[in-house]
Design goal:
alpha+beta, 5-stranded mixed sheet, 3-stranded antiparallel sheet, 10 strands, globular
Length: about 180
Amino acid sequence: MAAISPPVCDFGLPAPDFVLPGTDGKMYGLADLKGANGTLVMFICNHCPYVLAILDKIIRDSSDLIAFGVGVVAICSNDALRHPADSFENMKLMALKHSFPFHYLHDESQSVAKAFGATCTPDFFGYNAELELQYRGRLDATRMTPGQQDLPRELYEAMRQVAETGQGPKEQTQSIGCSIKWK
């Protein structure tokens, strides 16, 4: 499994619209998930060691950002035939087991991941209230094993700044993770 890094932030790029099924059985579009002060779209999956290493922090930071008026959503776009751990049924189990504070959506066709230009899990896209891209960085310095709990909260701080000013930080460190498992 080779580590993949997404490209740097393309400031101002508009968020692609989508409608996807959630693990709660409902359909969600970007307009349903948009926060008053910004929106965070995360591409994650159930089996990636990079995601699993930061899952508790994703949950913590998502809860804290929701309190700031940031909408948060996670999307799994992996090919579930080749990676059964990422099936829609297993996504439902994971969301329930970890009490996700955000909606977890299934992108079976992989069209949403392609529209966003997502390349890896985790891949974070932080938008301002006008749905203009302001952050495309990492959560923190953790890699494939759980890191220190006191690492700087890069994603959280960036999205808090976006919520307060509409602008993301000019300096961003790329996320790193497993490649999206394309069909």
